[in-house]
Backbone:
């Protein structure tokens, strides 16, 4: 069994991150994501739609947090802020996602993510806010 | 007294800036509830609360992570000013 499959509830075709490269603390570290021409998410062409990068950051944060499937299934994306898309990822790209916790208040957490390609070029950056637990 | 008024002004500007509200900072009443459905309040929600937490940390260097503390501190502009003053003391 692929351990990463155990760490996230997300599965094909909505699983975008591969594995943790470096973990520096709870939900802080670096995660790798691959863009493949054979992947479902590049079906529209040989690129990853930029808005998908918001979900890439959210999944990277969850993977670093330990990927508790319970949290993943019961939490939800509550907000997206200050996102910029600098380069459209193309098939063959090995993306790296740097994630850190920007703020926490109770069950609400904001993660900041920076996505770069294999050559260190900025692909996207921004913050996602996640609320753990069921929606009110 | 003047310091208190200056702090209230800073807090109101922070609320408007951080939450990107399209209102004049001075229009926020000192004792109006920031959260909830009170018609005289701002009607903020829990996601806005996190925005305020980040703004307070940036503006005053004060961290708020406990939700209960946040609920009390963000009750109104007056409560928020008292909270900032207590942490600065």
Residues:
């Amino acid at each position: 069994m692929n351990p990463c499959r155990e760490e996230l509830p997300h599965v094909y075709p909505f699983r975008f991150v591969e594995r943790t490269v470096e973990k520096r603390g709870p939900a802080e570290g670096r995660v790798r994501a691959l863009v493949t021409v054979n992947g479902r998410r590049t079906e529209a062409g040989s690129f990853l739609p930029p808005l998908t990068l918001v979900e890439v950051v959210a999944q990277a944060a969850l993977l670093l947090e330990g990927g508790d499937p319970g949290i993943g299934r019961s939490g939800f994306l509550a907000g997206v802020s200050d996102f910029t898309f600098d380069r459209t990822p193309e098939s063959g790209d090995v993306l790296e996602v740097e994630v850190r916790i920007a703020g926490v208040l109770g069950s609400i957490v904001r993660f900041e993510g920076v996505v770069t390609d294999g050559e260190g070029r900025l692909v996207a950056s921004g913050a996602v806010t996640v609320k753990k637990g069921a929606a009110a | 007294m003047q310091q208190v008024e200056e702090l209230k002004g800073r807090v109101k500007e922070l609320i408007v800036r951080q939450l990107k509200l399209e209102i004049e900072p001075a229009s926020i009443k000192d004792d109006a509830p920031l959260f909830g459905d009170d018609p005289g309040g701002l009607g903020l929600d829990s996601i806005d609360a996190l925005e305020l937490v980040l703004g307070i940390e940036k503006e005053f260097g004060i961290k708020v992570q406990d939700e209960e503390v946040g609920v009390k501190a963000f009750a109104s502009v007056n409560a928020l000013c008292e909270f900032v003053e207590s942490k600065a003391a």
